[in-house]
Amino acid sequence: MNRLMLTTLLAIKHNYKKIIPLTLIHCLFFSHIAFAQEESEDVFPNRPITMVVGFGVGGGTDQMARSLSKYYAEELGQPVQVVNKKGAGTLIAANYVLNKPDDGYTIFASGFNPYLTNTILEGNADYGIEDFAYLNFQWFDEDLIAVFKESKYQTLQQLMAEIRTKPKTVRAAVVRGSGGHLIAKLLLDVTGIPQENLNLVTYNSGGKARAAVAGGVVDFIIISAKGSESIREYIRPLAIISDSDNEDWGAMAIGKAVAPMNVDVPVLQGTIRGFATTTAFKEKYPERFAYLADAMERTLQNKELQALLKRASISGRWTGPEKSEELMKVNFEVFKKYAYLLKM
Fold it and tell me: Rg for the chain (alpha carbons), in Å?
């Protein structure tokens, strides 16, 4: 045995009472860290949630998400950050959400019907409605056909006659891929008016479309009624896409409005706004998905939030995951029947 090895052994023998406790402390320390990390991962959520809105700032879906976010954060115990990913009829936002980790920290806020539907039916999307798990459909709306308040058009029949006889002179605003977009196309189709006769301007957000008609930039708009309270004084309704008249807006049902033209227009479900995650997340973490849904239901029971939503004319309905998924499937099939018009 050489001198160096002997010296080392003597040092260990002399200090073993100090070395063993120190080693034990190190083991306990690192075990505690590992346990804390594992425990932290089991607690959900343990960091901020991102709510991705498929439209620009100021539209109905954006207002719904921002109104809910503060109260939802209180239920979750974590901040809820709202970000906007507008464009391509919510295609950009949908892809953004699907490309995020499937861990529950990203929630999609959108007008799932008809926007998500149309991104699929138009053939641009690589996903299907089954790739999303719907937490709740909160806001159901009917589409309003309204003209600028100083417009010369008094009836829908008069407006359509102008489009027929004076091509390209009438301008309309719709949100790209919306129910209003499809209704505009349907009106032209059932009345036998060439699609190119109408100067149809498509926007990526309801806020911009409403600003266009309120400012007289376009002659009329077809858009969700409940989200149009902010421009009520600047527009005059001609019809509501419903089976019955709307007394609040003073708008007649679409069937009555087109009756003088001897045509029928199908009553399509308007915008259905709500929240979803990816299906992959729900399948991977079903308990987390249930927690997000339960927290959202409790949030919508908050009286302060409900008062806020009422003042803003935003619905605060709790539909739940199962019913929301069922509605998504039914409405997808309805819009699928007329989707070809959006490609014209």
Answer: 28
3-state class percentages of the chain: helix first, strand second, coil last, to nearest 5: 55, 20, 30
Alpha carbons 51 and 45: distance in angstroms, whole number: 14
Q: Is the peptide bond before 260 cis (omega within 30 degrees of 0)?
A: no
Give the integer Cα–Cα distance in Å for 249 and 265: 20
Q: Return the number of other C-beta atoms located less than 10 Å from residue 338's C-beta.
A: 17
Is residue 48 a contact partner of residue 78, using CB atoms and an 8 Å limit? yes
How do residues 14-73 score in pLDDT, each as one tens digit? 554 554 454 544 544 455 444 444 444 579 999 999 999 999 998 889 999 999 999 999
Contact 288, 242 (CB under 8 A): no
Tell me: the pLDDT tens digits for 155-205?
A: 999 999 999 999 999 999 998 888 899 999 999 999 999 999 999 999 988
N-term to C-term CA, the chain: 93
- Which contacts qualify for 89-93: CB closer than 8 Å, 24 or more apart? 89/115, 89/118, 89/119, 89/122, 89/175, 89/176, 89/177, 89/178, 89/204, 90/54, 90/55, 90/115, 90/116, 90/119, 90/177, 91/119, 91/124, 91/125, 92/54, 93/52, 93/53, 93/54, 93/55
Strands 220-224, 143-148: pairing is antiparallel
Q: Provide the β-strand partners of residue 4.
A: none
State the residue for tokens 């896409």: 241
